[in-house]
Structure formats: structure tokens, C-alpha cells
Design goal:
alpha+beta; 5-stranded mixed sheet
């Protein structure tokens, strides 16, 4: 449940929220935003966790008002007309922006942020609180938990089984000194790639890169995880306040650093062949009401892990799981029909070509090419063009094994 409360000043919104929280008798997540001096033209907007009782500090400020107008703390990008953001996935952290003007100035701001980090006690404490609140909200998301539970069921020791952001206990030990050590160890040119796509002057980009990263420090050696080929458990479940049961099926494959990009492309073809919208299995499950329009598939892959997944809503998730495993076994025994292979390859080739029409996608492809060892960004098209049905059948035989698969289900609360 999400609640958004708004209204005139001083009509009792905050009082109503505090009383409602006190009467709920259950954990409440989210944030409160407020001013400490609303009438002043020079004031700050603060954000605190919904249940926080403490007074805000400067580390909780999210915007500054001057002359009655707000200025976000990301104003350096905003002033240049650039849109900036960042994300962390299982195997990388990315900082990026897009713009239609002032590219060189915006790039300098980005490089300055990355090259000169700002770690202070108050800022780290503020960020710890934000991350802890995000962790709680993710635990309330059935879409996230069905995946998180599946990864914990499939993997024994690989870090992919842990939440990307950690746990409330682990982030409680993070301080400015630890962040500085991590930065010095991992945020070095040997571990980085600067990817630029669009209309720009190449010499200007190289000049800025050399300005902020003049020396090449040795990259930290990546960890080698010895993950067993087996899964920890074949089934896991959880109950949450949802209307219809949700499920996710995973087939765990052996991760291979240099081959993972190729394997990912082959697996995307296989997912279409196993239970894509044009298959008999998809139509049978759909017509029987065992799946609906939410059904889909994806390949999750990183430097040393890869798994193929099917997900959706179903009141009979075990039946869907068994049907998928049976389909895999039948394809292994009977071979892939050449006409089905040709159709799926054409469809995937068309979808992949579409990526090259957007600057954002090209920048992402260049970064992926660097980290995965691809010779250029057109490698995916080359793989799709040259892949044979025999190669796909070999991939199916070697890495799609029902004994190394798992089913994760989120049941509605009250479900027997």
C-alpha cells in the first residue's frame, strides 16, 4: 500500500501521519519531507525516514531554496541542461548523463564527481539511512522478492545470491574511511571505461579524460568464485499481500567469463524456442489459464554467472514449471526444428538491430563490449548471424538441465 498525503500548510498532515503510523502496529517504510523554516526565502528541504524521530541535520537536505525557488543538490548538471543518474547492478556501477548541449562541460562535471569523491561522516550517515529505507521497500516488492528468493535458491556461494545493496547490518559498518579504501582500490582507470556516443569532439573527450585520470593505476584482481554446478534447493516460497500468485523459474548454467556474452545471445534464442509467444507450449498454457499476459523471460548474466529465467503470474506455478522442464527435455531428445530456429533468429536479430538506433543504447553496448571482451559493438549481430542450429542444440544439452533449475513462488497472504 502506498499513501500520498498533501494539503494546505498547518492543517494537521504530519499529525495525522504520526497517529496513523502509531496505530498500524506494523513496520512502515517511506520518507517524510519538510522545511524547518517554511516562511524564510532562504531555506532547505529535508528528507527523513517516515519513522525517524530525530531532528534533521544538514546531511538530510535534498534541495536548497533561494529567493523562493528550489535548487536541487544536483544543480551542476541541471544548470547545463543535462540529465544525470547512476546505478549499481550485480557486477558494475555506472554514472551517466545525456544532454543536447554543453556536452564538454557536463562531461567535466561527471569526471570531476568520479575523480574527486566527497566522503564525510554526515553524508555517509545520511546515505546509510536512505539505503536502509530502500532495502525495506525492496523487501515489500513481490517483483523483487520472487527474483531474490530464486537466486538464493540457485546459488550456494556466489555474491549474486545477496542483495546488491547489502543488508541493514552490513551497511551499518560502512563509514567514510571504508568508502575511501574501496574507492582507492577499485575506482581506477584499469577498472573503468568511459563510453561516449553522439555528436562530440574526440580530442576534447580525450583531453578531459587525461586531465582527471592522468595515470593508470593497476586494476584490482577480480575475485574468483568457485560456485558449485548444483542448486541449493529446487523450490522456495513466500507469502505477501498480492492478488495473484507470482512465480519465477530459473535454469542455472556454468558461468564463463569470456563466453558469457555469446552464451547470453544463444540463451535468448533458446528462451524463445522453449516458450516464446509463437510456441505451442505458450499457447497451451495460455489457453488453459495457467499463464497470462505477464508471462515473459530473460537472461541474467555477468562476468562469471549466467542463468535463464521465465516469470509471470499463475495459480498453478508448479504445473508451469513442470511443463517448462518437460519442454526442455523434449527439445534435447527431438532436436530443434530448423524452421523454428530460423524464425527466432530473425526476430532476435531485428530486436538487436533496434539497439543501434539510440545513442544511449550504443553507449551501453560499448561499455558492455569493453568489460566482456567483445571486439566491437557489432559482435552481437555477428553471433546471431553466424549461429547454427547445431550450436544452439549443444548449448541446450550442456546448460539446460532440469536438475539444476529452481522454482520461486510468491503466494497471496491467506493462501493455504
Amino acid at each position: 500500500m502506498h499513501v500520498f498525503l498533501t494539503g494546505d500548510v498547518q492543517i494537521g498532515k504530519s499529525t495525522a501521519i504520526r497517529r496513523a503510523i502509531a496505530q498500524l502496529g506494523r513496520p512502515v517504510y517511506g520518507f517524510r519531507t519538510f522545511f524547518t523554516d517554511r516562511e524564510s526565502a532562504e531555506k532547505s528541504l529535508y528528507m527523513l525516514p517516515a519513522t525517524a524521530e530525530r531532528a534533521p541535520g544538514q546531511e538530510d537536505a535534498v534541495a536548497v531554496f533561494s529567493g523562493g525557488r528550489p535548487t536541487p543538490l544536483t544543480a551542476r548538471f541541471d544548470a547545463l541542461g543535462a540529465s544525470a543518474n547512476a546505478f549499481t547492478s550485480f557486477d558494475k556501477t555506472a554514472y551517466y548523463f545525456s544532454c543536447t548541449e554543453n556536452f564538454s562541460k557536463a562531461l567535466e562535471v561527471l569526471l570531476d564527481f568520479v575523480a574527486t569523491p566527497y566522503f564525510t561522516g554526515p553524508s555517509v550517515r545520511r546515505e546509510r539511512g536512505i539505503i536502509a529505507e530502500e532495502l525495506r521497500m525492496y523487501r515489500d516488492s513481490p517483483e523483487w522478492m520472487v527474483t531474490a528468493n530464486l537466486l538464493q535458491a540457485m546459488y550456494h556461494v556466489h555474491p549474486i545470491r545477496e542483495d546488491i545493496a547489502g543488508t541493514e547490518e552490513s551497511i551499518a559498518h560502512i563509514d567514510a574511511a571504508l568508502l575511501r579504501r574501496c574507492y582507492e582500490r577499485f575506482y581506477c582507470p584499469g577498472n573503468m571505461v568511459l563510453s561516449v556516443a553522439g555528436c562530440f569532439e574526440e580530442d576534447a573527450v580525450l583531453e578531459l579524460a587525461e586531465k582527471y585520470f592522468p595515470t593508470v593505476k593497476a586494476a584490482a584482481n577480480p575475485l574468483t568464485i568457485r560456485e558449485p554446478r548444483t542448486v541449493r534447493e529446487h523450490y522456495c516460497e513466500q507469502k505477501m499481500p498480492i492478488a495473484a500468485p507470482m512465480f519465477q523459474v530459473g535454469f542455472k548454467a556454468a558461468g564463463g567469463e569470456k563466453e558469457n556474452m555469446r552464451h547470453r545471445l544463444l540463451d535468448e534464442l533458446l528462451l524463445d524456442l522453449i516458450c516464446g509467444e509463437t510456441t505451442d507450449l505458450y499457447r497451451r498454457l495460455y489457453e488453459a489459464g495457467e499463464i497470462n499476459a505477464t508471462f515473459g523471460s530473460e537472461v541474467m548474466a555477468g562476468r562469471d554467472f549466467i542463468c535463464a529465467m521465465f516469470d509471470g503470474e499463475s495459480r498453478q506455478p508448479q504445473a508451469v514449471y513442470e511443463a517448462l522442464c518437460e519442454r526442455v527435455t523434449n527439445l534435447q531428445r527431438q532436436a530443434i526444428p530448423p524452421q523454428d530456429f530460423a524464425r527466432c533468429r530473425r526476430a532476435n536479430y531485428g530486436r538487436t538491430i533496434g539497439l543501434y538506433g539510440r545513442a544511449e543504447s550504443i553507449a551501453g553496448l560499448m561499455a558492455a563490449a569493453h568489460f566482456s571482451g567483445m571486439k566491437d559493438i557489432y559482435y552481437p549481430l555477428e553471433i546471431l548471424r553466424s549461429t547454427t542450429v547445431e550450436e544452439l542444440e549443444q548449448r541446450l544439452q550442456e546448460d539446460y538441465d532440469p536438475t539444476t533449475s529452481a522454482l520461486s513462488v510468491i503466494w497471496p497472504q491467506g493462501n493455504p
